[in-house]
Specification:
InterPro entries: Inosine/uridine_hydrolase_dom, IUNH, Ribo_hydro-like. One of its GO terms (biological process) is purine nucleoside catabolic process. Residues 4-304 form the Inosine/uridine-preferring nucleoside hydrolase domain. The structure is a single chain. The protein is α/β, with parallel strands linked by helices. The strands form three sheets. An eight-stranded mixed sheet has the order 3-2-1-4-5-6-12-9, sandwiched between helices. Strands 7-8 form a two-stranded antiparallel sheet. It has a two-stranded antiparallel ribbon with strand order 10-11. Helix content is 40%, strand content 18%. The radius of gyration is 18 Å and the shape is globular. The protein has helices spanning 12-26, 44-57, 81-84, 106-116, 130-138, 142-145, 168-171, 174-181, 192-195, 202-210, 214-234, 242-251, 300-312; strands spanning 3-8, 31-37, 65-67, 121-125, 146-152, 187-190, 200-201, 238-239, 256-261, 263-265, 276-278, 292-298. Bound molecules: beta-D-ribofuranose and calcium ion (CA). Beta-D-ribofuranose (BDR) binds at residues 11, 13-14, 41, 80, 83, 126, 152, 161, 167-169, 242-243.
Length: 314
């Protein structure tokens, strides 16, 4: 059973991912050892309170939720309120959580849980990578302690979603992403190339909206906000639940298709800062960087049906 530490910026698709993880926990198919939040869609404290709210609604208690870094390593902070709402949850007005946030900071939590579970921890990251980058600086042995790092981020052949080439999670902290992709640990990267084709629409959204449970009603209302934000991009009624694909590939890698390539982050480009660059040449010149396993596609039906069943089953 995977032992997961979830690092996120909750966020609508992060919240959908929490619901998916909650269903795995209830089914005894995954352990969630902790959640850490980072700046990104919202500030990290709001993201942590959102996380607690969603976990409580899904009937999950006892998972420590740690607030993380509030600023990127080398640039000003930006939030994505236009995509996720001022509250990060599509302005759904969930009640304040009853539980407390952890006293530990998210990067320290990463180091503690990796040390307590050597070789076992899956780090699932669906926000900017500042907490992971900070944890690498806190403990240089971290790469030897973690089983796998699964990241939603980047764009290769697909256009960016913040600038022409840059995807949000990498663009929010390019220096941290470069640290994570350049470290000697097994990284699985789930970029826009893999997530965009999984956009949910029509029948999927109708089945969610027709289901009579508190969680389904919440998910459906939250996604309405996201659908409106996606209208100019998708040009149809739908939305991309990026982060849940990364979570599903962490648990069930067989539903993905991958290539293995060294990945770098552009840190200086005038128009391309925050862009992910892969080396697709058959013979890269003596690249000593460990290749990243990059998802380039997935079994879309399996992803959509599994996610819907998870949310309806809570
Ligand atoms: C990523 O950016 C965020 O807005 C989403 O939550 C997702 O993690 C997609 O680029
Ligand atoms: Ca996210």
């Amino acid at each position: 059973m995977p032992k997961i530490l979830f690092d996120c910026d909750t966020g609508i698709d992060d919240a959908m991912t929490l619901l998916y993880l909650a269903s795995l926990i209830k089914a005894g198919e995954a352990e969630l050892l902790g959640v850490g939040t980072v700046h990104g869609n919202v500030d990290p404290r709001s993201g942590a309170l959102n996380t607690l709210r969603v976990l409580e609604m899904a009937g999950i208690s006892g998972v420590p939720v740690a607030v993380g870094t509030a600023q990127p390593m080398a640039q000003p902070v930006h939030y994505a309120h236009s995509f996720h709402g001022a509250d990060g949850l599509g302005e759904t007005g969930l009640p304040v959580p009853t539980g407390d946030l952890s006293d530990e900071l998210a990067p320290a939590q990463i180091v503690r849980l990796a040390r307590a579970n050597p070789g076992e921890l899956t780090l699932l990251a669906t926000g900017p990578l500042t907490n992971l980058g900070t944890a690498l600086l806190l403990d240089p042995e971290l790469p030897t302690l973690v089983r796998e790092v699964v990241v939603m981020g980047g764009a290769f052949d697909h256009p960016g979603n913040v600038t022409t080439h840059a995807e949000a999670n990498v663009w929010h902290d390019p220096e941290a992403a470069e640290l994570v992709f350049g470290s000697d640990w097994p990284v699985v990267l789930v970029p826009l190339d893999a997530t965009h084709p999984t956009a949910v629409d029509g029948d999927w959204l109708d089945r969610l909206a027709a289901h009579d449970s508190e969680t389904a009603r919440f998910a459906s209302r939250m996604l309405e906000f996201y659908i409106a934000a996606y209208a100019p991009t998708l040009k149809r009624r739908g939305c991309v639940i990026h982060d849940a694909l990364a979570a599903m590939l962490a648990v069930d890698p067989a539903i993905g298709r991958y290539v293995e390539r060294p990945v770098r982050v552009e840190l200086r480009g005038e128009f391309t800062r925050g862009t992910t660059v892969w080396d697709a040449r058959a013979h890269p010149d003596d690249d000593e960087r460990r290749p990243v396993k990059v998802a380039v596609g997935s079994d879309i039906k399996a992803f959509q049906e599994t996610l819907l069943a998870a949310v309806l089953g809570l």
